[in-house]
């Protein structure tokens, strides 16, 4: 089968690889659409902490089931599906309590023998496969995974109806987190970024205020002035240097910041704000099954305008172009999808 491979840093090729052979608890999916995620770009650059080239890339997927294992029970051939791309050992306390993302032996596509999703066929354990209505477009259902990231972050924030929220970084994950925050009842939604077109997308998704922070030294002060005060919750969806302390400075006393982005290198931390003002900083990593279910429900309800997230849809033969678009922010790229 054909597969998109990050062969080395900044080198994406399409090659023939062996079609997956499924186990008794697995299903085989004929891939229709896969998405390029920011973490895929980290692999593309050769800086991802555990997904290293050469690798069949991708973890966002939608498609049709073409084969099921002998001990599957819920998923059937012909089902349209999307996947929560992680599974645990099934034996530890996190797995027993539904926190698979805490499992020390957590598996994900592109690690070990599990091929990524950018291939003609993708195998996955039935437990992490979600059946969606056949009326749901493949290019919409593929957004369930990145939206689940935002849903999980909002849940970790314990966001309440009527709260004031800031989203730092208006890339696809930031925009989907904004969408999840709006669905959870946030009334003030400030989005910041260094690209005007990204902020235009944020407005389409419900941002009440935006701020281009490029070249602004005291942008946190400006953000509070524009929005009319401090924020209850701040989501950090960009890994820029110093952004954690900037997030803390946006918060009211007792507010909570949630780190969603993938960070590289050290971040300074103003402990005085954490202690003296009882502000909180927590991490958010991937999702739980309930987050994926909520994401699918939001997509089915039409809560996420497709055109406000997806900027390009390319055939797999042009995957190298897709990665370049996302990495270089060319042609006003946002979420880029790859079709098979």
TrEMBL record:
InterPro entries: ADH-like_C (IPR013149), ADH-like_N (IPR013154), ER (IPR020843), GroES-like_sf (IPR011032), NAD(P)-bd_dom_sf (IPR036291), Zn_alcohol_dh (IPR050129)
Domain called Enoyl reductase (ER): residue spans: 7-338
The keyword Oxidoreductase belongs to this UniProt entry's keyword annotation: yes
Record's keyword terms, sorted: Metal-binding, Oxidoreductase, Zinc
Pfam families the UniProt entry points to: ADH_N, ADH_zinc_N
Protein name: Alcohol dehydrogenase catalytic domain-containing protein
């Amino acid at each position: 089968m054909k597969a998109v491979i990050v062969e080395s840093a900044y080198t994406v090729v399409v090659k023939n690889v062996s079609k997956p052979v499924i186990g008794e608890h697995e299903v085989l999916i004929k891939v229709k659409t896969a998405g390029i995620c920011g973490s895929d770009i980290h692999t593309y650059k050769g800086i991802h902490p555990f997904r290293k080239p050469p690798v069949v890339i991708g973890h966002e997927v939608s498609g049709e089931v073409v084969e099921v294992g002998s001990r599957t029970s819920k998923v059937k051939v012909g089902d349209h599906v999307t996947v929560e791309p992680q599974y645990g050992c099934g034996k530890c306390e996190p797995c027993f309590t539904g926190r698979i993302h805490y499992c020390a032996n957590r598996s994900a596509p592109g690690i070990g023998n599990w091929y990524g999703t950018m291939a003609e066929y993708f195998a996955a354990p039935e437990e992490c496969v979600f059946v969606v209505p056949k009326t749901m477009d493949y290019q919409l259902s593929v957004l369930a995974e990145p939206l689940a990231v935002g849903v999980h972050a909002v849940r970790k924030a314990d966001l309440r109806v009527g709260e004031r929220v800031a989203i730092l970084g208006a890339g696809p994950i930031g925009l989907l987190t904004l969408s999840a925050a709006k669905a959870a009842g946030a009334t003030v939604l400030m989005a910041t970024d260094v690209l005007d077109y990204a902020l235009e997308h944020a407005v389409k998704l419900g941002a009440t205020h935006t701020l281009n922070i490029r070249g602004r030294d005291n942008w946190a002060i400006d953000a509070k002035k524009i929005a009319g005060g401090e924020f209850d919750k701040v989501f950090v969806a960009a890994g820029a240097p110093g952004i954690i302390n900037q997030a803390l400075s946006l918060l009211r006393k007792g507010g909570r910041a949630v780190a969603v982005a993938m960070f590289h290198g050290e971040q300074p931390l103003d402990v005085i704000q954490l202690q003296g003002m009882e502000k909180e900083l927590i991490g958010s990593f991937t999702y739980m099954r309930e987050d994926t279910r909520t994401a699918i429900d939001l997509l089915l309800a039409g809560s996420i305008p497709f055109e406000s997230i997806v900027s390009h849809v390319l055939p797999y033969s042009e995957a190298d172009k897709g990665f370049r678009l996302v990495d270089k922010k060319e042609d006003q790229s946002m979420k880029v999808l790859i079709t098979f």
